[in-house]
């Protein structure tokens, strides 16, 4: 089956987009399934789409968690309706089990205090099993001072950045390697020649010529498992329980932030920004004296024309949008008695963060982290009727677990004082 042309740059961009590849693959699967069913005169059932609005909350009974989610309707295929669900469980850093079947979009699980449990859900029917949901984690502390809600707002996957002008064309893997879905072996190296006047020349002077530094490497992307990394750092403090949810449940209102002592909003390398629905929920939470940790590489881009969004950042989160670092610059970050380097380039360990945000304190906040090159603000904290701690880089991009534990302990300690 021929789908795309390697001589068409727009086709090549689509070929690197994970969402496009999923859509095409599902379309081909449906076509083959329907053809075979028609040829043999039998009925068919299309496998379901992945579930959404996944959330974990503390159960009504002691040492239990309540899991809930919403099935996704395939508006193009009525047979793709979910008939049941499989909930897979992981304890600590182990592997996932073989799953527990449930007919309803909810499940209550018993847990042992002190252990981190992770869950992901698939939808099933006669046609098969869907792709899994994001992975959410939870832990009951043995002596808990309260509960932290981790909100996963990092669901971005994307192909690499591109250049397409009258003079230059190509993929800018160095400055923006994109966010693969899981991992990808798709790249051989960084493109070195972007000259559109040199097509078809098969040496270093030709359009598209690249190096080989990425050959044989599985470039890391979005694992959809970052609540676990945040949760392990919370667990290490020994003071808090934690649960987690998708940001979709905040937008829909099915998760109430005000029920939690601390809210940890992780945006990772997502570029979608803080939506109006989430801004409203966070404002309500802060107005009731909440403690808010929020981290992400693109919380500040200096280009937003959203006046309400800028006002929210300045008046509620207490930082001013000062734009992003130049690509691959300001790699080293210092603060809270630690110093570490952010993963600016594509690698096999964690998703790349080629740029991150400059944060300027406003309204009584103060700097907590700086980029050591130039001492520009990389994090702020605010103490007033409520408290915020904002990081202009993803918390999970702090490379060493011990450093993440130290930073999380300091942040939770700031919320307690």
UniProtKB/TrEMBL annotation:
<dbReference type="InterPro" id="IPR003961">
    <property type="entry name" value="FN3_dom"/>
</dbReference>
<feature type="domain" description="Fibronectin type-III">
    <location>
        <begin position="47"/>
        <end position="144"/>
    </location>
</feature>
<protein>
    <submittedName>
        <fullName>Fibronectin type III domain protein</fullName>
    </submittedName>
</protein>
<dbReference type="InterPro" id="IPR013783">
    <property type="entry name" value="Ig-like_fold"/>
</dbReference>
<dbReference type="InterPro" id="IPR036116">
    <property type="entry name" value="FN3_sf"/>
</dbReference>
